[in-house]
Specification:
By secondary structure, this protein is of the alpha/beta class. It folds into two domains: 244 residues, 3-Layer(aba) Sandwich (Aspartate Aminotransferase, domain 2), CATH 3.40.640.10; 126 residues, Aspartate Aminotransferase, domain 1 (Alpha-Beta Complex), CATH 3.90.1150.10. It has 13 helices and 16 strands. The protein has a seven-stranded mixed beta sheet, sandwiched between helices. Strands 12-14-16-15 form a four-stranded antiparallel beta sheet. A three-stranded antiparallel beta sheet has the order 7-6-13, with no helix packed on it. α1 runs antiparallel to α8 and α9 packs across α12. Bound molecules: pyridoxal-5'-phosphate (PLP). Pyridoxal-5'-phosphate binds next to α3 and α4.
Length: 424
């Protein structure tokens, strides 16, 4: 990298402080707090995010995990059910299925998108399947046309986890509005963030009503709120939990949302610069979007390596070497879910695991070949780097060539680190 620092993330948008101060002085810091005669920050953000998404309903939550939990609960997923999830994703996609007492059934990815493969989803369906969760991973959108058609054919709802894809569009419509529900994380590393935060968007009013109650201990909004009293009333048709977004987070998100389109535009511009630089290089192939992606966002820029060109070492070793050469924070993607160190279904007695098919809970016996391959072959770059000046990437082709030339030393580094990791 040249003589400029990597862009910081998170970065406060122009009106974040002003919005925060307004909430701090408002007398209402939480959704159940006393009504002040005007919409809460949470309601204002919900309306703005729904508008940005082109969705009639948005229910903000504490985080992306609770967004997934209430989406599954709203779709009536529960004990004994199976939910299809991709093998390559953050652990929350499995842990939230366990949280509603269902079994996560991990499926392989499509190597072109790194998202759940439609064929693998179809093969995994049983009479117990109650939902399909797809994740629009890194800078990709899953093949929504194929996956929605499968869902429709089998009468199974599709949940789109858009935690990596705030603002992406498929055939001119935002991702998250195609399935029964779209969920988002607004955790600190995400494209839109308030440190922690989440949301569910949906089209259906009855589902939105369930989602609203599920995230506020069963409460709904009072039709005629009274100043000084809570706007939430105990008018309950489904038991809920407290997953309410705080007013402080909503205030920050409102400001961050204003900055998102320009930031997404800038990231896409720089991603095109990197694509072009890598185009002619042997041994590296940027992950491309499917033709139906009409607006591509970049949570992580992803590039697949030909391991032979790098002496056969793993993406983890290549990432470290490239980071050392360029200062750019390369990383290998998640390990397959069934080997993820955070996936520990048997450590909580509240999960009803008895009688469950271990072949489903622990992933298929033979593993998921494309998911395994992606962990070894894909390099990712976290999005803040795409907000850097264009020349941040000038040194990248030369660094890649150098790392390939010196592959023998990478092999030595990798086998030394394997040996030091071997328990005595
Ligand atoms: C794909 C995906 N889904 C869900 C989550 C969970 O979101 P949160 O951390 O806000 O609970 C994450 C978080 O990183 C994620 O990457």
């Amino acid at each position: 990298m040249g003589d400029f620092a990597l862009p910081a993330w998170p970065r406060p948008a122009q009106n974040a402080l002003r919005n925060l101060q307004a909430v701090l002085e408002s007398g209402r810091w939480s959704l159940p707090g006393a009504w002040q005669g005007r919409p809460s920050a949470e309601e204002r953000f919900a309306a703005r995010f729904a508008d940005f998404m082109g969705a009639p309903h948005c229910v903000p939550t504490t985080n992306g995990t609770s967004a997934l939990v209430i989406a599954l609960e709203a779709l009536d997923v529960g004990a004994g059910d199976e939910v299809i999830v991709p093998g390559l994703t953050w652990v929350a996609n499995a842990s939230t299925v366990l949280a509603v007492n269902a079994t996560p059934v991990m499926v392989d990815i499509d190597p072109a998108t790194l998202c759940a493969s439609p064929a693998a989803i179809e093969r995994a369906i049983t009479e117990r399947t109650r939902a399909i969760v797809v994740v629009h991973l890194f800078s990709s959108v899953a093949d929504l046309d194929a996956i929605l058609a499968i869902g429709e054919r089998h009468g199974i709802p599709v949940v789109e986890d858009c935690s990596h894809a705030h603002g992406a569009s498929w055939r001119g419509r935002r991702v998250g509005t195609w399935g029964a529900a779209g969920t988002f994380s607004m955790q600190e590393r995400k494209l839109l963030t308030s440190g922690e935060g989440g949301a569910v968007v949906c089209q259906d009013g009855a589902l939105a009503d369930r989602l609203t109650q599920l995230r506020s201990d069963g409460r709904r909004f009072a039709p005629h709120p009274v100043e000084g009293e809570s706007e939430l009333v105990a008018d309950c048709s489904v038991a809920g939990t407290n997953y309410c977004m705080s007013e402080l987070c909503a205030a920050v998100l409102d400001a961050q949302l204003e900055a998102l389109p320009e930031q997404n535009r800038r990231r896409a511009e720089n991603a095109a610069v990197v694509d072009k630089l890598l185009e002619e290089l042997p041994g590296v192939t940027p992950v491309r979007a499917l033709p139906s992606v009409t607006e591509r966002t970049y949570y992580q820029y992803a590039v697949r390596i030909d391991r032979e060109a790098f002496g056969g070492v793993t993406a983890t070793t290549v990432s470290r070497a490239l980071t050392a050469e360029t200062g750019l924070p390369f990383q290998a993607p998640y390990p397959p879910m069934y080997r993820h160190p955070l996936y520990r279904p048997r450590t909580k007695r509240r999960f009803l695991l008895e009688g469950r098919d271990p072949g489903r809970l622990d992933g298929p016996a033979g593993g998921l070949p494309e998911t395994e391959r992606a962990h070894l072959e894909v390099l990712t770059l976290h999005h803040p780097v795409l907000l850097a000046p264009d020349q941040a990437f000038d040194a990248l082709p030369e660094a890649i060539e150098k790392v390939q030339r010196e592959a023998a030393s990478l092999c030595a580094v990798e086998s030394a680190s394997r040996e030091s990791a071997t328990p005595l």
